[in-house]
Amino acid sequence: MKAAIFKGDGVMAVEEVTMPEIVWPDEVLVEVEAASICGSDLHILSVPPGQYGEPGTIMGHEFVAKVIEAGPWVKHVAVGDRVVIEPNIHCGVCPECRSGRENLCRNAVNIGQWRNGGFTQYCVVPQKQLHRIPKDIPAGEAALAEPLACVMNGMMRINPMPHEKVVIFGAGAVLEQAIEIMECGGRILVFGQNATQVSQIQPSEINCKELMIVGALSTLNSFPAAIELLHNPNLKLNKIISHEVALDEIDKGIALMRSREAVKVIVYPGGVR
Ligand SMILES: [Zn+2]
Ligand SMILES: [Zn+2]
Fold this sequence. Notes:
Bound molecules: zinc ion
């Protein structure tokens, strides 16, 4: 099968690899239907990297797939189920995990970063990382369940109320801008990760306006909310899908994201229909 592999130093290559096999009894073999390119993938492919990627790993952490085979301990999904993947595998025993912040796990093994991900045809994933998703949701939109779950984690952290005003800053905005524009008592959600980005803030602006700055990382109990939302026609998630490419053309998709011509690019390992 073909897979887009991170080679290190900003390089990704589509290569022929052997089909993965179930090793642990709680693992599931899935066939990838569609995967979405994330800003994080661009950060991994930047030099210096804005996010870590383990060389030799198949990239892609936002994907929808079909269960092909299930290990003997798998109870939660069955062959034929359509699933979305929660990519961050936590250890369950570190202080962060034990305090209920599994998304901050210090021993996390993220799919598409340290462990083979979804920019390929088949992938092996532990059952606890899978969430069933109805078959009537279009593949491209279903692939966006993960970024939507990240958004929902952020929303659940700041709990915006219907009477409140909201400002959304685009990618790469600096914290100074948000602090400047914010009214007294406002809350700022810092979302997305790029280790190369720096900010110079004046602490007095925060305390004089009694601002609250809240960070959010990946997903925490937010997949069910995201999957529920995928059914909501008001969401119009298909509007942010700007391009669709086959796995062989994934470089093109990355380039479109980098040049900001694309918003979300969906990759189809089986080719675009
Ligand atoms: Zn992502
Ligand atoms: Zn942990």
